[in-house]
């Protein structure tokens, strides 16, 4: 089956049962899992690049899933993360949309459904999305690698599910992937970038609630 996701249940002895496929929208590109409807069952969320949607597969609780519910996420969703961005203890969806040059935030309505996206600009050619806390306020912030501008940018969370205007930091040539970790053991989120045009990785250390270039 094309344009689908597959689930392989763990048999418990290091092997997996045969895959079960579930139809998605066109060209599923990125996937994440979390309990999105407060029933303590792991659900699946997919970015469908070709259909410009995100799809939510709710878990029945027995290892099978409901058919996908689709939400428009314009345009060209290529990566997603699940995290509570508005302090209501429900995972929300952050979607990187390359044609719209930004990040869509779909807030969780609390019953397994999601609100229409709010979009935040994030550079002309975004390619990768990661999450962290970049100003030590215990809120979920976003970082985006932007291939076209040779920059990364952060979107700081205001605490109510909205984000401030992006803060831009220079990288080397053609940043294509970004990750977040505490590199220097100071309990602050640092940023690691793969720069394919420069054949290197870059590290941006967080210092006093901002990042070093």
TrEMBL record:
Record key words, sorted: Signal
Xref: Pfam families: FG-GAP_3
InterPro entries registered for this protein in UniProt: FG-GAP (IPR013517), Integrin_alpha_N (IPR028994)
Tree of life domain: Eukaryota
Keyword Signal: yes
Gene3D superfamilies for the chain: 2.30.30.100
Name of this chain's protein: VCBS repeat-containing protein
């Amino acid at each position: 089956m094309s344009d689908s996701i597959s689930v392989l249940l763990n048999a418990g002895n290091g092997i997996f049962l045969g895959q079960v496929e579930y139809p998605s929208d066109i060209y599923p590109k990125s996937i994440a899992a979390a309990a999105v409807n407060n029933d303590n069952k792991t659900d699946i969320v997919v970015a469908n690049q070709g259909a410009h949607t995100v799809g939510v597969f709710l878990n029945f609780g027995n290892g099978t899933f409901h058919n996908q519910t689709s939400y428009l996420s314009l345009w060209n969703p290529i990566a997603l993360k699940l995290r509570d961005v508005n302090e209501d203890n429900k995972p929300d969806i952050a979607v990187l949309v390359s044609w719209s040059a930004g990040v869509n935030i779909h807030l969780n309505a609390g019953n397994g459904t999601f609100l229409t996206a709010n979009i935040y600009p994030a550079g002309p050619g975004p390619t990768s999305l990661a999450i962290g806390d970049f100003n030590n306020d215990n809120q979920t912030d976003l970082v985006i690698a932007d291939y076209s501008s040779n920059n990364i940018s952060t979107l700081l969370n205001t605490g109510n599910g909205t984000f401030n205007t992006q803060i831009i930091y220079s990288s080397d040539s053609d940043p294509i992937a970004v990750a977040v970790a505490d590199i220097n053991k100071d309990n602050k989120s640092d940023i690691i970038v793969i720069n394919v045009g420069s054949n290197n990785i870059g590290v941006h250390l967080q210092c006093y609630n901002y990042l070093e270039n």
